[in-house]
Design brief:
Elements lengths: L5 H19 L3 E9 L2 E9 L2 E10 L13 H17 L6 E10 L6 E8 L2
Parallel strand pairs: 3-4
Antiparallel strand pairs: 1-2, 2-3, 4-5
């Protein structure tokens, strides 16, 4: 059996922790790791009538900026294009949307920062 690369396992664990954090806050998961030609959506959650597209960032070393700061303009554009693809594919363009970013850091327990409405489309 092929072993998973350590960075992929770490990313999957960060997404799991982010999902649990969001579910404890009352959101429910709709989809995860949605892939389209335009990019990937880590988590698609629902909060009431709002679809929440969540970018999960794992940061082991804050020297180069936190996870939230690492979502630059180019990354935001990819997320917005991929969210538009998701909405069209699932016929959900009538839904209200929000873009959040969650940063998961090292530590026991891991530090989790959640920025609601991190950017707009």
């Amino acid at each position: 059996m092929k072993r998973e690369a350590p960075h992929l396992a770490s990313g999957r664990e960060a997404e799991r922790l982010a999902r649990l954090h969001l579910e404890r806050a009352g959101l429910s998961m709709r989809d995860h790791n949605y892939r389209a030609p335009t990019g990937e959506l880590d988590l698609v959650m629902e909060e009431g009538d709002t679809l929440v597209f969540v970018e999960v960032r794992l940061r082991r070393n804050p020297r180069f900026g936190g996870g939230i700061a690492s979502v630059d303009g180019r990354k935001r554009e990819k997320i917005v294009r991929t969210a538009a693809h998701y909405l069209q594919r699932h016929r959900l363009s009538h839904r209200q949307c929000r873009f959040d970013v969650i940063s998961v850091g090292d530590g026991d327990p891991p530090a989790i920062q959640w920025l609601r409405g991190a950017f707009e489309a």
